[in-house]
Write a structure and sequence with these properties.
The radius of gyration is 24 Å and the shape is globular. It starts with a helix and ends in an 8-residue tail after the last helix. It is mainly alpha-helical. The chain has 18 helices and five strands. α2 crosses α9 (186-197), α6 crosses α7 (106-136) and α9 crosses α18 (402-425). It holds the Pfam family SecY. Belongs to the SecY/SEC61-alpha family.
Amino acid sequence: MLSAFAQAFRTPDLRRKLLFTLGIMAIFRLGSFIPAPGVSYSNVQQCAAAAGGADLLGLINLFSGGALLQLSIFALGIMPYITASIITQLLRVVIPRFEVLHKEGQAGQAKLTQYTRYLTIFLAVLQSTTIITVASSGNLFPGCALPIFPDESAWTLVLTILTMTAGTGLIMWLGELITERGVGNGMSLLILTSIAASFPSAMWSIAGGDNGVAKFLAVVILILLITLLVVFVEQSQRRIPVQYAKRMVGRRMYGGSSTYIPLKINMAGVIPVIFASSLLALPTLAGQFGDATEGWVQWVSVNLADPGAPLYIAIYALLIIFFAYFYTSITFNPDEVADNMKRYGGFIPGIRAGRPTAEYLQYVISRITTAGALYLALVALIPTLAFVAMNIDQQAGFAFGGTSILIVVGVGLQTVKEIDSQLQQRHYEGFLR
């Protein structure tokens, strides 16, 4: 693998793409340390060291590479774009126009991408306003009396909102540049960069505590085992054989070939885990604005703020399973696949074309999704329970949680496959053998 990686850098065209990708990733990390206008950087550092992020803000802070709790120009990270992309996909079920655009090919996809960009900017304005309001009220770092905004004039707050929104637009543009001129999916690589940036500090916090060396080794072994499980499942697929009948088009004979439909065990990816984490964090975030002596705030603190609470674990697992089924039903349409097969003369051996094919595909996908949903719940819960048992702080739990491992391994596999395909196009031996 190392020799193939060196061979990739010896190829001029591929070397330019790799260096361009690495350069964009470096610019993205640099922007995470530039404070937004009006923010007291020294006060933010002191408050962040004393309090740390948690709950929903901790999840957003993970995807921003720590930029959120530093209130930098890239504080929102890639989260507005992720949310906008998910909303656009979900709207295909609600708005028929979006489904029509999805079926129109490249022109329709370009229009949907444009809608996603507009929605990203809108969400960036909304999220930046919320974060700045929370920060100015002192709830971003509970217990810290230092002012985040020494000058809380309306102009300063508006300028900060505009800066963070512009930073989100710049991140979106940088991701598209990587996709067009670099290697791999730009948005996915930026997410990978954000998560990987939190690994050193999380490892340091684990190794520096009580029984640090033992906990450090235990976490490393746990991560390796989960990584092996993720790689095995993400590479697994159910192949549905498809046979195409011969047909005459003009004077030429087409068809007569056999292929297969690859159905991944985990077709929903990491989306169900992100959805479940976000929904479970909302009550805790709302509790920060309430009085700590109120009954509902105490109940939320005991049952929904503690990752080791039985109710938290049960709700978390059920939400992951639900969203796995829900998202798979949106992204994979058996009726559409069956119609396309019928249109081009394809059929599954032993299954009639049309409605029987759609019912068979639905039967297979429902059972595959069961295994995928249980796998996602297992990967998401094992690190959480292990970190709670080892008394590891929540920041490290976010950095090495199931969501982080799924994203890092999934994006890594996707990028390695793309580099391998480009090496094979140039008749070189690739990464995968």
